[in-house]
Each structure stands twice: as C-alpha cells, then as structure tokens.
C-alpha cells in the first residue's frame, strides 16, 4: 500500500485556477482564502465538540457569513469580492465530497464536528477495494462464505437456540443466533419495512434510519495517451464559475458541480462530482461526459486543441441497488449522538443482542469512511464476545 499513497490536495500541491473564459487567477486569490477557510472549518468543528450552537443552521450559511465579515474588514472592491465568493463556492463544492452530501446547504454546522477525519493519509488499493475483499476472503474456508445470496428478509422464529431466520432471494434460508446487518443507510431507508419483521424494530431504530442522510459522491477518471496539454508542474485545475444559471437544468448544467481536474497519474485526470448532478452523470454515456468535460478543459486552459480522453471510467454508487448512494452525513434535522448511536444499537430479544448493526453510518466519529466501517465491524464482534464472556 505504501507505494500507492495518495497525494493530499491543498497542502503542497500546485493549483491552476481559471474561469470559463480562460482567465487565470493567481495564487494570491486562492491560497490566502484557503488558509482562512481552514480556520473557519476548525471553528465549525469546535461547535459540536464544545456542545455549542451557532446562530446559523447550515455549513454554507456559516461560511458565507465568515467571508462577508472578512471582506468588510479588508474593505475589498466589488471585483475582488466576486472572486472571493466564487472561490468560496468552489471550496463548498469540494466540501460535499468530504461530507458526503449533495450540497453544504443540507449539512448541519452544529453537528459538523461530530465527524472526525481518520488520522493518516489516504491510500489507493491497487485494483480497487475488491482486492481487499479477496484478500480477506482468502482467510476463511470457502464454504463459510455465501456469494450471490441477496437477503430478502430477517425474521424471528420460535427457536430458543437459533431464533433468527434469514431468507434469501434465491430461496435459501438460514437459522442463526445472530445477524450483523452492514447495508448502507439508504438501502435501509428503502427496504427496512420489508427487510425486518416488524416485531424486531423499534421507534428509535426507525427514526435513525429515516433521519441519517446519504447522498452520492462519484469519481470520473479520464485516461489519455498524451496529456502534454496539462499545465507543467501542476497537480490540479480548479474551475471558477461566475455565471452559474439561476434556473438550473440538470441536462445542461451538471458541469457546474465539477470543482477539480486532479492529475492523479501521468496519464489520468480525476473529476469529483456529487449530489443530483452525480446521479444524473451515472445515467450518461461516456461519450457525452467526454464531450462536456473536454469542452470545459478547453475553455479553462484556453486551448481548443485539447484531445478527448482515450478512455473514461466512472463510479456508479447511486445506481447500485445495494448502495443507493456513497456515504452518510448528519443533516440539519439530525443529531449525531442520538441518531448514529441509535442506528448502531442492536435489536434485542429476551435481553440477547440478536440483530446487530455495523457499517460506516453506525460509527459516531468516523462515519462516511472505510475506517469507520472497519471499526464498527470490530465493535460488533467485541459486543458478541463480551456478551458470551459475561455468561460464562
């Protein structure tokens, strides 16, 4: 893994910032505001940690107010203010990928600090996460792992030893002592009324399922045989938009959600996109995505000769029926301590934890991360171990 360590944007990276007319914006417009933004971000996180409340409800409101106050103090001219607002808007689009929400207008600033970024750098798995699953699966006897067994129903049967019945769509059924449910929260939202026997559920669990939110975060990978058009010694191109349409049309305006062309490898650019724009892009043919993003690059770099990518690959988290989104966040109607903990709480029968819950959305501090999902699995394993140890 160590040779596949991912670079961290905005620390030492060189950014090329431009608008759709091809006008380049010097780092002075960008880097100083990024430093200030990070300080404001720490202030927002401190609200939850200190159990304080902001006068603002959403993360967007909090950040926009900070910027307006700063610009008043600096007595900026109107042109400089327009640039600063456009830069902040780009930062907020970037923040949606970290927070997992469609827009930071949905994210509660008072609950924002409940999320704690795991310590250490990001890593890329060669071959993707499937390689990790294959590695872990090799540790188990093959007959213990059932593939292609989508679960249709989890119910209770009259059996003191194995009171839980798991029914699969292929007709298979299994009686067991315990079940650990690790589906995404959006899968639970869509299916909990049919997935579980009503007798197993309780009001706090249902409220948690319905309250915790989850949107789409997708990546688009653009592969080139020749990427000499990319600015020399540059790590990413960041677009600024000054004329985003007032009446939004997803078919023509999804491109405005793009906030970076990240030079991931020497022959590949990575584009992030979130929310309903990501959902829509998942439905588009690669040729149309190629046309839109190539035209954007040509405008940003003022170069009509930039080629189309030779190959495109995109993630499809929303379209996947077993995910229906990417990862969770706490919106303006949620309370992390209450709803995440209630989602993680097992369902008991006769004081025995029979249906347990794991997955990123059940970790109070590391929700939205693979790190949190991993730790939540350990948590539920320990829960069962401790339960049986107490019976001895």
From TrEMBL:
GO cellular component: cytoplasm
Main localization, broad class: cytoplasm
Every Amine oxidase domain range: 118-384
Domain of life: Eukaryota
Cofactors, names only: FAD
Keywords carried by this UniProt record: Cytoplasm, FAD, Flavoprotein, Oxidoreductase
Localisation per UniProt entry: Cytoplasm
Gene3D superfamilies attached to this UniProt entry: 3.90.660.10, FAD/NAD(P)-binding domain
Cited PANTHER family: FLAVIN MONOAMINE OXIDASE, PEROXISOMAL N(1)-ACETYL-SPERMINE_SPERMIDINE OXIDASE
Recorded family membership: Belongs to the flavin monoamine oxidase family.
Protein name (Swiss-Prot/TrEMBL): Spermine oxidase
Organism this protein belongs to: Brachionus plicatilis
Lineage per the UniProt record: Eukaryota, Metazoa, Spiralia, Gnathifera, Rotifera
């Amino acid at each position: 893994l160590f040779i596949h360590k991912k670079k961290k944007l905005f620390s030492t990276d060189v950014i090329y910032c431009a608008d759709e007319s091809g006008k380049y914006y010097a780092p002075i417009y960008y880097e100083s505001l990024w430093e200030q933004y990070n300080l404001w971000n720490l202030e927002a996180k401190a609200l939850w940690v200190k159990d304080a409340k902001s006068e603002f409800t959403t993360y967007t409101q909090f950040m926009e107010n900070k910027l307006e106050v700063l610009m008043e103090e600096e007595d900026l001219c109107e042109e400089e203010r327009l640039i600063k607002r456009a830069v902040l808007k780009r930062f907020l689009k970037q923040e949606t990928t970290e927070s997992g929400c469609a827009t930071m207008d949905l994210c509660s600033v008072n609950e924002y600090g409940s999320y704690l970024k795991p310590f250490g750098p990001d890593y890329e798995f060669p071959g993707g996460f499937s390689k990790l699953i294959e590695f872990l699966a090799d540790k188990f006897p093959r007959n213990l792992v059932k593939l292609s067994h989508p679960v249709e129903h989890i119910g209770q049967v009259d059996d003191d030893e194995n009171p839980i019945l798991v029914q699969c769509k292929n007709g298979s059924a299994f009686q067991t002592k315990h079940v650990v449910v690790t589906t995404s929260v959006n899968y639970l939202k869509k299916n909990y009324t049919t997935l579980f026997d009503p007798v197993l559920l309780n009001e706090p669990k249902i409220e948690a399922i319905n309250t915790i939110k989850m949107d789409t975060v997708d990546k688009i990978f653009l592969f080139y045989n020749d990427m000499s058009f990319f600015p020399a010694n540059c790590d990413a191109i960041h677009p600024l938009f000054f004329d985003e349409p007032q009446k939004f049309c997803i078919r023509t305006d999804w491109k405005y959600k793009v906030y970076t062309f990240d030079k991931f490898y020497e022959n590949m650019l990575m584009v992030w996109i979130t929310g309903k724009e990501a959902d829509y892009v998942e439905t588009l043919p690669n040729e149309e995505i190629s046309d839109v993003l190539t035209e954007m690059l040509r405008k940003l770099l003022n170069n009509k000769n930039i080629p189309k990518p030779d190959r495109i690959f995109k993630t499809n988290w929303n379209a996947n029926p077993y995910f229906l989104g990417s990862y969770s966040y706490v919106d303006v109607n949620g309370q992390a301590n209450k709803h995440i903990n209630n989602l993680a709480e097992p369902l008991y029968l006769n004081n025995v934890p029979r249906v347990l819950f794991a997955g990123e959305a059940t970790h109070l501090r590391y929700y939205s991360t693979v790190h949190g999902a991993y730790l939540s699995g350990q948590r539920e394993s320990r829960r069962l171990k401790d339960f049986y140890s107490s019976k001895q």
